[in-house]
Amino acid sequence: xxxxxxxxxxxxxxxxxxxxxxxxxxxxxxxxxxxxxxxxxxxxxxxxxxxxxxxxxxxxxxxxxxxxxxxxxxxxxxxxxxxxxxxxxxxxxxxxxxxxxxxxxxxxxxxxxxxxxxxxxxxxxxxxxxxxxxxxxxxxxxxxxxxxxxxxxxxxxxxxxxxxxxxxxxxxxxxxxxxxxxxxxxxxxxxxxxxxxxxxxxxxxxxxxxxxxxxxxxxxxxxxxxxx
Length: 228
What we know:
Elements: H1 3-15, H2 17-31, H3 34-37, H4 42-45, H5 47-66, H6 68-71, H7 79-93, H8 96-104, H9 106-132, H10 140-166, H11 186-219
Helix pairs in contact: 2-5, 5-9, 5-11, 7-9, 7-10, 8-9, 9-10, 10-11
C-alpha cells in the first residue's frame, strides 16, 4: 500500500470520527446508569441535555462530514423553525404532568428521548448545513438563520435552566427520590438539574451560535480570504 493510499484511508477514517463519537455517547447516555436513575432523580433525568446539546451536534457534524452531499440538501433557512420545534418540545416536556409521566413510565421516556434526539438533530443539521456542508456558498440568509436558531435555543435553554435553579419550591412530583437512599432533597436535586441545563444546554448552543457567527464574520473580513 502506498503512502498516498494510506493517507487517504486515514483521512477517511478521521472524517467519520465525529459520527462515531456521537453514536458512542448516545449509547452511553441511553444504555448507562442514567435511565435507571431518572425515575427518582431530576438531575439524572437531565440526560436529555447530553442528547440535544452534546450527542446531537456531534452526530450532525458527523453527518455533514461523512455525507456532505446529503447535508448540503438540508435547508439552512429552516433553522429558526427547528429552534421553535425544539423550544416547544423542551418546554412542553418539562410541564409537570408530562415530565412526571416520563420519569415514571419507561415507554413514555423512550418516546420522549427519541423526540429530543430528533429535535436536536433538526436544529444542529439546519444550522450546520449552510456552513460546513458540501455547498459552502449557500445564501447568506440561510447561514444567518443557522446562527439565529442556535442563539435563540441557547436563550430559552438558559431561561428554563434558571427557572429550575432559582425556583423556591419543587415543580415536580418527588417520585422515587423520596427514599431513605436519597442523598439530596427534591429541591436540591431540581436545582442541580437546572444547573446542568444552564451549563450544558445553554452553553453548548451559545458556543455553537457564536462559532458560526465568527465564521461568517471572518469570511467577510477584507484580507481574511473570505467573501467581500
